[in-house]
Amino acid sequence: MGVQASVSVIIALRRAVKRHRDRRERQKRVFRMSVIIISTFLGCWAPISVVNLLILCLGPSDSLVTVRICFLALAYGSTVFHPLLYAFTRQKLRKVLKSKVRKRVVSLLQVDPAPSGTVIHNSWVEPRKGGRRPRLECSDATDRCLTEAVRE
């Protein structure tokens, strides 16, 4: 009874440690994503703010107005950047995109083989694991078990 309780405690502690690690990893990812989005926001909107202050202090000039238009386009571009950044920092989306690209690369390699039999090595394509044993059907496995039992 005591052994069973200590095993249960050890399993519970392992689960708690794993949950804690997962929570810390999630917090790191959220913090990193927040820093990236805030820095791109500042990087896009800070230049236009500085140029507007310069125009207010120095007065409008042709060069400042031209620079202001460029920075204004950059600032409004952040409305496109932020959803993209949010989407590409999501782990699930990255996995889906990576799997789609892998499938596409594999299909391209299979459809259009290289001339003269050259081998194309691609880091996106995972090599197939060799040495797998073929799965036995239920009847084959049952027959094998029965024959081993009869021999004994």
From TrEMBL:
It is a multi-pass membrane protein. The chain crosses the membrane at residues 30-54, 66-88. It is found in: Cell membrane. One of its GO terms (cellular component) is plasma membrane. Keywords: Cell membrane, Membrane, Receptor, Transmembrane, Transmembrane helix. GO terms for molecular function: G protein-coupled receptor activity; peptide binding. Signal peptide: none annotated. PROSITE patterns: G_PROTEIN_RECEP_F1_2. CDD domains: 7tm_classA_rhodopsin-like. The keyword Transmembrane helix applies. Residues 1-86 form the G-protein coupled receptors family 1 profile domain. GO terms for biological process: cellular response to hormone stimulus. This is Putative G-protein coupled receptor 22.
